[in-house]
Amino acid sequence: MSPLIVLVGPMGVGKSTVGQLLAERLGVGYRDTDDDIVAGEGRTIADIFVDEGEPAFRAIEKRAVRTALTEHDGVLALGGGAILDADTRALLAGERVVYLSMDVDEAVKRTGLNAARPLLAVNPRKQWRELMEARRPLYEEAATAVVPTDGRTPEEVAEAALDALELKEA
Fold first, then answer.
1. DSSP secondary structure of 47-61
2. pLDDT mean by block of 10 residues, the chain; 170 residues
3. Sheet strands side by side (includes 75-77)
4. Binding site for substrate: what residues are annotated?
5. Angle, alpha carbons 86-141-102 (nearest 5°)
6. Residue list for the binding site for ATP
7. β-strand partners of 99
């Protein structure tokens, strides 16, 4: 078993919203590894970062992604940093992976780049740019298709993802 579609991309790009729309259109289930982590750990991702640090969170995330890739056959959304792990990227090889992209101005509009995001606590615009400079090549490496989200509604993004993967609605 493996997911029909895996969504990757930065925080705030709309993976959850678009993922749910895709699942509805395809008549399959939706799953988000961030939700799995929160449910499994009994606390927020921000709390895990504060209490245990990023390396501990990334280890938890890696296990959650591996589990979801083997258990879920619908639409799966991964956390923004899941692709940082080389083993996770290797697991994504052969999957239908859609990288939802956006530029910094769109990120500001969507998330406000607020301090509730643990990796963007100080100088959010600069940190977002630096994160994306490091992550963009990894998203692109993992991706089967890249779908820009700038200036598009979630419905338009979902439609573009289906088109890019040549999938038909249920």
1. HHHHHH-HHHHHHHH
2. 94 92 96 97 93 94 96 96 94 95 71 52 70 90 94 94 86
3. 30-32, 75-77, 5-8, 97-101, 145-148
4. 34, 58, 80, 135
5. 115
6. 12-17, 117, 152
7. 8, 146
Numbered residues of the known binding site for Mg(2+): 16
Concatenating the DSSP letter of every residue in 95-110 gives: S-EEEEE--HHHHHHH
Residues at the binding site are 12-17, 34, 58, 80, 117, 135, 152
CB contact at 8 A, 82 and 8: yes
In sequence order, which residues have a C-beta less than 8 Å from that of residue 86 and are 6 or more positions away?
Answer: none
Q: Contact at 8 Å (CB) between 117 and 109?
A: no
| Cα(21)–Cα(158) distance, integer angstroms | 7
